[in-house]
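Please, structure for the following, as tokens.
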Amino acid sequence: MKPHHWPLVALGVSAVIAITTVIVVGSKSPAVNMPILFGFPFVVTYLVHLVSKRAPNKVLFELRTDFKGRFVDTIEVTDSGLEIIAGTPHKTPVLTYGFGDLIGIGTRQAVSGEAPWITLHDGRALPVPQGDVVVLRTTTGDQVLPVENPQRFVSLVRSRVPNLSDAPTAAVLTADNDSEAGEAPRPIGTPTTPADGPAVSLTGPSLAVRWLVGATLALTGTVVLPEIALLTTPDVPRLMLAAPLVAGVVWVLNRNVPWLWGRLALLSVPISVFWLAGSREFVWVAVLLVLCPTLGRLGGRMFLLGSGLGREVQVRVPLRGGESLFVERDRLVFRTAPDGKVFDQAMWLGDITLVQPGTSPHPELWPMPGGGLKMLVGNAPTLRLVAGPQQWLMPVTQAGELAELIRSRRGTPVPLTQMSIDEWRDLRHWARRRATGIAATSLTTTAIGWRLLAAAITGSFAWMFILVAGRGVNVWIGVATTVLLTALLLADWWRVRGRMRLAEHHMLPPGSRNWGETRPDHTPIHGWQPWR
């Protein structure tokens, strides 16, 4: 049995032992049964995992990265060669070498500025992380492998192929930094002229009506309903009554982010439900759980794309592929589905030189700057945006309306922060690490907002602990722990927020070429037809 299969076997065996033990002991106490059912298998599996990583016949090695994403990159030494799995949830190798393909092997230190060690099928090029790396000399060229425990890996390969020579120790440097941000489309566009597109009519209520209705609905769900529920319940302490007011303060701080109001309406609900359930006010519990988020969401929907939105309100525009484009006061932010290897990217509205709605006759994949994501565009309304070397093609149904909103919010150009290629790499790797929720698990996200969600959860528990402590129960350790966690999470969000915004605006390396065909009178994709 291969060592990396040991933890799975240990988990199954320990689970059977734990269940059998609970049945034999016959205890009905959760305090006894839960540690046995969950604690024992967890401890055994973790210990076996540690042993498997140090097994002398280990054949599966992790590949080091400068960030932890959703998937673990590995290389396995099989009976016939090497199989490399990187950047994919599937077990299909992206690169294989038979033992007959190997000429030499060795180790060396990674060098700043060397070429990426692999380019994935989606166009992403993975840079070589710092530390010792393995160098394979093969019949097709040299291959760098950032393997964990490189000396053991080299020894294992040499035991399978005894006559390998020493691989060269010199790194291959490259001046083409663009490859690290993914493969850009070829700028081979043909000339085109605008044609009449669908009629654009921005409709909707005035800004005053939007605020009157939207804020009334959102504040009713965020503050009024929870406060009424608590005031009509007997013996509610004053601290409990303050919870909806705190949620109201948070709403005021986020008043220009309507798409977030549905979530903010839930901020005081767990604390209120905690007290109402204890007082057997189950009708109010159901009302708060259903109406609060519903009213908050309805209030936010008053600010959907249309006329009368002003300049301050942040507008979320859903894209056809499930992604979102956020039109803020001074910038655009593109957000995709959660993946620790792709974080948000942004454009300053003042830097945008081309806002061009249009379409094309055939669907086509458009790679976003930075690599790691391709958008399905064409055969439907699409919005083309160019800012400096960046170019986005956004598959959005209301392309003309979105173009008008962006044009109405244009500002002054913002100069990019000057940085070297090494500083850009450090910033990019830092952003990937900080955008990942918990690096050692599969919990990943594309933004830093998980810290705020976690702070809301720990803050709710802190509030509950304080209420319980006020009734004479000794839970001050829980109070101190949850308050400290909440403060640390909020401080960490504030610490990373500024630099993350910097990374979002620097998806391309310094001095990079234009991302495809950026001339307004030429086509970025086949058959592109711009609209007037």
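The radius of gyration is 28 Å. The chain has twelve helices and 20 strands.
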